[in-house]
Design goal:
- It is a single chain.
- With 289 residues, the protein is α+β, with helices and mostly antiparallel strands.
- It has 2 domains: 12-110, GIY-YIG endonuclease; 115-288, no CATH class.
- 47% of the residues lie in helices and 16% in strands.
- The chain is built from 11 helices and 7 strands.
- The strands form 2 sheets. It has a 4-stranded antiparallel beta sheet with strand order 6-4-5-7.
- The longest helix has 29 residues, at 236-264.
Length: 289
């Protein structure tokens, strides 16, 4: 039998916090802040029912919980509670605390996330795309976002640029694509010389796609590839993979931002980076309601 030193005989939380702490736990939404020695904030959590959630920590045992939870329980010396009127308000407060304090055990929400603005310019001779962290006033009308997710955004944009390049040049082999567009993540800045696409319905479709109001672009790309019999060519696998990335980017970024604007009645379609996480919470609860 392996001896696990995390708990000598029983879960240490009852001894450290006292049985009275658990008996008095409220059955309401809220957040809980777990502190280690010297008052170090270890973890911030949200609960629909504080009593039910915290009792799971009291009952935690090696073999039944993850090593992370067991390690956290071993380190806890104090727990502070904040009661909130709703689970939504508790989640917003949790986001705020994690952003400001970056507790050691809140790995998921404190990891760096990219919040990109996507600039799409279409002129008579070229299409220019840029991924930026700030909005330039003179480019507001050509800017979309903020979109969350480094990989999601850059793969989505890469897929979009590849498909526009294929349409512009009517190519059927992957090696005919520029090397910059064959990378897993598209460049932050790209310029695509264009003649066929300039002023076409494709540009209007791309703008609707990025606004999140309509995904007809995906349908039209597939129609084009069938007409050109590209799915049977060497580039067919690239197209299908790109369509998956574009659909994911549309659902997780463009469409979601559109719905946030609609449901929350925001003043501008451009969402501030620092507001996006909180808007996502409000959007999710509004949809449930």
């Amino acid at each position: 039998m392996n001896y696990n030193p995390f708990f000598e005989s029983e879960n240490p939380l009852t001894e450290r916090l006292g049985a009275g702490f658990f008996e008095a736990l409220p059955k309401v939404p809220g957040i809980y802040k777990m502190y280690g020695s010297a008052g170090r904030l270890l973890y911030v959590g949200k609960a629909k029912n504080l009593r039910s959630r915290l009792l799971t920590y009291r009952r935690a045992r090696p073999g039944r919980e993850s090593r992370k939870v067991i390690r956290l329980v071993r380190m806890i010396h104090a727990i502070e509670l904040e009661e909130h009127p709703s689970e939504e308000e508790a989640l917003l407060r949790e986001n705020e605390l994690i952003r400001n304090h970056k507790p050691e055990f809140n790995h998921a929400k404190k990891q760096h996330e990219a919040y990109y603005y996507l600039v799409f310019k279409a002129g008579n001779s070229e299409i220019i795309t840029d991924l930026r962290m700030h909005v330039r006033e003179e480019e507001k009308e050509q800017t979309y976002g903020a979109f969350k997710g480094h990989v999601t955004v850059r793969r989505g944009l890469g897929a979009l640029l590849r498909q526009l390049y294929i349409i512009e040049h009517t190519i059927s082999k992957p090696f005919e694509l520029p090397s910059q567009l064959l990378r897993k993540l598209t460049p932050l800045h790209y310029e695509l010389p264009t003649d066929e696409l300039a002023g076409s319905d494709w540009i209007a479709d791309v703008r609707l796609f990025l606004e999140g109001g309509d995904s007809r672009l995906l349908f039209n790309i597939m129609e084009y590839t069938r007409e050109q019999k590209l799915l049977e060519s060497f580039i067919g696998k690239v197209i299908l993979k790109d369509m998956e990335a574009l659909k994911f980017f549309y659902d997780r970024c463009c469409r979601r931002n559109y719905e946030i604007n609609e449901i929350l009645d925001l003043e501008s379609p451009l969402i501030p980076q620092e507001k996006l996480d909180d808007y996502l919470v409000q959007w999710a609860f509004a949809k449930e309601g």
